[in-house]
Amino acid sequence: MTAIVSHEAALAAAVRVAAALAPGVVQRDRDGAAAVPSEALAELDGSGLLSLTVPVADGGPGLGPLTLAEVTRTIAAVDPAIAQVPQAHYLLVDVLTLHGASEVRRRLFADVLAGRRIGNALAERGGKHAQDLTTRLDDGRLTGRKYYCTGALTSAWIAASALDGAGRLVLAFVPRDAPGVTVDTDWDVMGQRATISGTTTFADVPAELVIDYAGAFEVPQQLGARAQLVHAAIEVGIAEGALRDARDYLREKARPSTEAVRAGAAAAPDDPHVLHRYGRVATRVRAAAALLREAAGVLDEVGLVPADAAAAARGSLAVAGAKAFAGEVAVETASELFAMCGTSSTASKYDLDRHWRNARTHSVHDPADWKYHHLAAWELAGVQPPNHGQL
Predict the structure, then answer these.
(1) Rounded to 5 degrees, what angle do the CA atoms 40, 110, 138 make?
(2) Which part of the chain is the Acyl-CoA dehydrogenase C-terminal domain (predicted)?
(3) Judging by DSSP bridges, how do beta strands 157-164 and 136-138 pair with one another?
(4) Contact call for residues 85 and 45 (beta carbons, < 8 A)
(5) How many CA atoms lie within 13 A of 340 on its CB side?
(6) pTM, entire model
(7) SS3 for 49-83, per residue?
(8) What are phi and psi of 128, to 5 degrees?
(9) Which domains does the chain have, with CATH numbers?
């Protein structure tokens, strides 16, 4: 495994991973949870990219949001499902950086630097919201059931949120192969299929490595913003991938419509309406990428430890705008692909519908309407956004 030491090295590694993923992306989408994408994940885990945000003091390169966003976007433009697998991993590296005791950091960062991934078990069902937790950590034993556990199936460690005996939110890191840990492949959705974000069950699992997670959100923080930045980068990547495939199809396969031929078009790119649609969508995709870079730059300026609540709000709102807009653009681009390319492009052999399915599935990860709401509340009334992990 090649060590990542710079922004340029990280981007080069992302390009190599994306190139390795490209030949199998359609089959992985079709297989979904029926086939664990072991080879694809081995490319990711062996690339050195898992360690890119590990602090220099802990043996890592200490790279920041600008690198993380570009790496994620590059991989997501080819396979957004594989790009999403380490999303929580990077969040958890940030949590360890800020709140992990020295022994916890030593053990877990050693594995991360060796290419061993941390999966998540954070969300639950049945409560008032996904973080209304029933999972418990009592006397060092973890018991509960989690859903949407992206990356857990193939990880080395799983980080599970739980309430301790005092009812305080904690984060317990347990080995994936620990007795009592079961990760299912019950992931049956229309998009982001290869993430295999199934159910994880903990049955009286011993947990030695525990962090007080409640404290992370009792002070100004950028954990949520940095986690959402990765989601925004995935959406931009989906949009760029859909635009790329639309361009290739229009150049190589598409025929002009009957009306376009009557108007003098000899090829699909000669159709003035295709040109209009493509130009409009391409401009919006570039705008989404620009907002992503801007948001990453703001997070880089604010830092992992913001100076105060105003600085934290600045980072959170920059990412909120980028994420909300990128989701819209990804869905739009993946749909416009078919309007530009025509009926033949819907043939299952091309699997071009995966772009829309991926965009629509991923874009509802959290509600974009609330992101716009918080942006407006700040601009119009000076109301700071909530201090939680979804903004």
Answers:
(1) 95
(2) 229-366
(3) parallel
(4) no
(5) 30
(6) 0.97
(7) HHHCCCCHHHCCCCCCHHHHHHHHHHHHCCCHHHH
(8) -70, -25
(9) 7-217 (2.40.110.10), 223-381 (1.20.140.10)
Q: How far apart are CA 78 and CA 23, in angstroms?
A: 10
**Beta-sheet strands, E only, within the chain:** 118-121, 136-138, 141-146, 157-164, 169-175, 181-183, 200-206, 209-212
What tens digit of pLDDT does each residue of 71-115 get?
999 999 999 999 999 999 999 999 999 999 999 999 999 999 999
For the chain, what's the residue count? 391
SS (H, E, C) 242-301: HHHHHHHHHHHCCCCCHHHHHCCCCCHHHCHHHHHHHHHHHHHHHHHHHHHHHHHHHHHH
Query: Reduced to 3 DSSP states, what percent helix, strand and coil does the chain have, rounded to the nearest 5?
Result: 55, 10, 30
Neighbours of 303 (CB within 10 A): 13
CA distance 76 to 8: 18
* Dihedral-angle region of residue 56 (phi above 0 means left; psi in -120 to 50 means alpha; beta otherwise): alpha
* Chain position carrying tokens 């025509």: 342
pLDDT per position as a tens digit, 260-293:
777 788 888 889 999 999 999 999 999 999 999 9
